Amino acid sequence: MTLSPYEVEGFYDRALENGKHRDIVGGRWDETGRVQMQILRDMGLRPDDVLLDIGAGSLRLGCKAIEYLEPGHYWATDASRALMLRGREVELVDPSRLSEAQLIEDKTFEFVGVSDDVTHAICFAVFTHLPITHLSRALKNLRRAFPKLRQFAFTVFLAPDRDALGKPYRQKDGVVTHRARAPYHFLAEDVLATAQEAGWEISADPMMLPRGQALYLGRISHKDES
Ligand SMILES: C[S@@+](CC[C@H](N)C(=O)[O-])C[C@H]1O[C@@H](n2cnc3c(N)ncnc32)[C@H](O)[C@@H]1O
Q: Closest ligand 1 atom to the C-alpha of 109?
C-alpha cells in the first residue's frame, strides 16, 4: 500500500523529467520558503548554528537557509536524493555553497550520515503525508542522533475533535485531510502524547501557515533524567 503520492512507483523520475521539482513540493515557492525562514529566525537560529531540513524536497527552504547560514551548516534529508540534487543544481544562487554530501536520502527518519553537530531541525509539510507512527519514529531518532539539538519545528494537519477524526476534514486553506490516507490529519492530543512518549516537550505555535497546517515547536525533555 502506498502511503502518499510520493511512494507511487516512478513518481520522482516522472516529475523531474517534466521539470516539476517545484510543483511536487507544493508550489507557493517563495512564500513557503520565507515562512520557514521566519519560523527558524523566531526559534533563534543564527548563522553559526547547524540546521537539518528533514524532507527538504527541492530546497524551497534550502535556497534561503543556505544564504543565511555559514557554509557547511545546512544538512538535508528526503525520500528522494534526486529531488534535492535538482534543487541544488537549479535553485541555489551558488551551488558550491552546499556539498552534495550534505543531501542524504532517508525515508525512515534514521538520519544516518548527518552531522551530529545539528542544533536546529525543521520538518515542514512532511508528516502531513504520513501516518503518526512516522512522527513518533522521527522524534525518537532525533533525540538519539543529535546531542546538540536545541529545537525542532514540525507541521501537521489537525482534526478539531474525535468526531471529525474519522471523516474527511476541510482545512482553513481548502485542503481536505483524512485519518487513514494522505493528506493525513491527527488529533492535537495524539500529537502531544506521541511527543511526550518520545521524550519531547512540544507546544503549538499560533502562526498561520500555508494550507492550514499547524506548527509545533519542540525541545528534548530532560524531565526523567537525574
Ligand atoms: C510537501 S513536500 C515539502 C518539502 C519541503 N519540506 C518544503 O517545505 O519545501 C513533502 C516532502 O516530503 C518528502 N517525503 C515524503 N515521504 C517522505 C519520507 N518517508 N521520508 C522523508 N521525506 C519524505 C517528499 O519527497 C517531499 O519532498
A: 20
Q: Is the CB of 79 under 6 A from ligand 1?
A: yes
pLDDT tens digits, 186-217 = 999 999 999 999 999 999 999 989 899 999 99
Closest-lying ligand 1 atom to the alpha carbon of residue 6: 15
Pick the CATH number of 5-220 from 2.60.120.10, 3.40.50.150, 3.30.9.10, 3.40.50.720: 3.40.50.150
- Residue 38 Cα, ligand 1 centroid: separation in angstroms? 19
Residue ranges of the domains in the chain?
Answer: 5-220
**Burial (CB count <10 Å: 0-12, 13-18, 19+), residue 94:** exposed
pTM (global) more than 0.90:
yes
Tens digits of per-residue pLDDT, 36-78? Answer: 999 999 999 999 999 999 999 999 999 999 999 999 999 999 9
Give 226's pLDDT tier (boundaries 50, 70, 90).
Answer: low
Ligand 1: does its nearest atom lie under 6 Å from the Cβ of 127? no
Pocket flag, ligand 1, residue 6 (CB < 6 Å): yes
The angle, 0 to 180 degrees and rounded to 10, between the axes of the packed helices 132-145 and 188-197 is: 30
Query: Residue 16: which residues within 8 A CB-CB, separation 6 or more?
Result: 82, 83, 86
CB 73 near ligand 1, within 6 Å: no
